[in-house]
Amino acid sequence: MEAILFNSTGVESGKIKLNEEIFSKEANDGLIHRLLMLQRSNSRNPIAHTKTRWERRWSTRKVYKQKGTWNARVWGARSPIRKWGWVAFGPRSNRNFTISMNRKERRLALFTLLSVKARNNQVKIIESVSMDDSKTKNMLTIANNMQIVTALFAMLPDDRNLFLATRNLKNIKPIGVNYLNPADLLKYKDLVFTKESLDFLGQIYS
Fold this sequence. Notes:
With 206 residues, the protein is of the alpha/beta class. The protein has helices at residues 20-23, 29-42, 103-119, 136-145, 160-166, 182-187, 195-204, and strands at residues 2-6, 12-17, 123-126, 151-155, 172-176, 190-194.
């Protein structure tokens, strides 16, 4: 599997061979879907919270007698059929939406996504970005030369200059190569690496 290689100005300069262990997996939509659901479910923060019968502050005295009124046989003012009563079967903030998935399955799902990107010629490599080019204006010129519409820019985790230069670009999201995830990979069309970040990806999953 090969990817297009671009020089520091964004002009195509050849091809580069990709790591076969990462970029040559067969498509597995079911596994990708499970990893995406894991990411979304584990990031949920349930804040909707209703009070139960014992948390609602109100009188516990029976509103009226049990029989002879032709009304519902209600309890006290805290009854759920009352306006200021507790909520029956309402949402609670202690709900647990977390999903588990084996480490090998998570890794295979990520490799599958990267392989799909590579087969569709959506993986692009930049040879290097110098300190002088690490400015938003220069990165915009490079992106235009590479004909990027939407892209996920995978860079080294400690490359702060490149992160600051790309974070304000429209339709381009900078991300550490160690934080590649299914939601971003599915949202953005192209996946852009630097040579250093591509090598670092191989080191992470070696």
